[in-house]
Amino acid sequence: MVFPANRLEELLADAQDGRVSDSELLEGIRGASLFIPVSGGEGGAVSLPGVTLDGGQYVPAYSSEEQLVSAAGAVSRIEVAVDRLLGIMPGGVGIALNLRAEAPGLPITPDAVAALRVRE
């Protein structure tokens, strides 16, 4: 597995080493695309998965296809730009970035997701 596979993963590695501020990381996330495991619904519609972390609801998302496979195996997935994801996520939900993956990850809290929406 190649790491980092993209600019977002470079930012995550830099953030882990303290070389990137939280605001720089959030701006990098905002401009990225993420891979999300999905299950099919009726008529080809997909639904966003949800997990609970520290009592809050999060959508698991991954910085690359490789990270998704390392965490969830060979599952159905979509690639979606973060700006688009922000538009379809319900309010009060965060993003669990690279949950159980080999790469660095972090919970993007519902408040941080709301701040990303404001910057759109």
What does this protein structure show overall?
By secondary structure, the protein is of the alpha+beta class. The chain has a single domain (7-118), classed as 3-Layer(aba) Sandwich (Trna Endonuclease, Chain: A, domain 1). The chain has helices spanning 7-16, 22-30, 65-72, 82-88, 110-118, and strands spanning 33-37, 39-40, 46-47, 51-53, 56-61, 77-81, 93-97, 106-108. The strands form three sheets. The protein has a four-stranded mixed sheet with strand order 4-5-7-8. A hairpin with an 8-residue loop joins strand 7 and strand 8 (106-108). Helix 1 (7-16) runs antiparallel to helix 2. The longest helix is centred in the first third of the chain and has 10 residues, at 7-16. The model has no long low-confidence stretch (mean pLDDT 89).
Short synopsis of the structure:
With about 120 residues, this protein is of the alpha+beta class. It is about 35% helix and about 25% strand.
Number of strands: 8
CATH topology: Trna Endonuclease, Chain: A, domain 1
The largest pleated sheet is described as: 4 strands, mixed
Unreliably modeled segments: none
Total domain count: 1
N-end to C-end Cα span: 33 Å
| Helical residues, percent | 25-40%
Structural class: alpha+beta
Number of helices: 5
The CATH architecture name reads 3-Layer(aba) Sandwich
> How much strand?
25-35%
